[in-house]
Specification:
mainly alpha
């Protein structure tokens, strides 16, 4: 049975998918549909990011939670592309970009807790685990290869972001 977020049954489907991803990731990602368009996973991701942004803005006094959510949404597409490239080129992964994006989007369920100090950090680590489980299923690779793909992608993100961090410091 394929699983996916169904926007037509928004609240019930969102809660069900969030519980499945968080509590039974191997089953969820094993049964997750690999195709069907980007709308359901993008909407699921956007809701998770919006919840984090709104609640986080109350705690951290961030005046622009929706800008942060939008940037995170864009980074999800970029991150999925890097993961896809790494998995296919280095580890002979068999999944598609859409399948990879779905893993990234549904793993964002941890963002629902991202606004809570310290718990958000732990949830982010669990999100990396969720990505590893999902990528292992979607790309039919070993756990070790999925872990390496996530680590390599994180390293690439850091290398890409370093110059921007330097620019921000210089602009002060």
């Amino acid at each position: 049975m394929e699983k996916d977020f169904n926007p037509q049954e928004f609240v019930g489907s969102f809660i069900q998918v969030a519980k499945e991803v968080a509590l039974r990731p191997k089953e969820f990602f094993g049964d997750m549909s690999r195709t069907g368009g980007f709308y359901p996973p993008v909407l699921f991701l956007a809701v998770c990011l919006a919840v984090r942004g709104i609640l986080g803005s109350l705690i951290f006094f961030n005046p622009m939670p929706f800008i942060a959510a939008l940037v995170s949404l864009v980074f999800a597409f970029i991150g999925a592309g890097i993961l896809q490239f790494v998995l296919q080129q280095l580890f002979q992964g068999r999944g598609t970009y859409e399948g990879t994006f779905r893993v990234v989007a549904y793993s964002a369920v941890v963002q629902l807790l991202g606004w809570i100090p310290f718990i958000g950090f732990l949830a982010s680590l669990y999100g990396l685990y969720l990505q590893v489980v999902g990528l292992e299923k979607v790309h039919e690779v070993s756990v070790g290869k999925a872990i390496l793909a996530v680590v390599i992608t994180a390293a690439i993100f850091v290398l890409i972001m370093l110059p921007f961090g330097g620019l921000l410091i210089m602009m002060r």
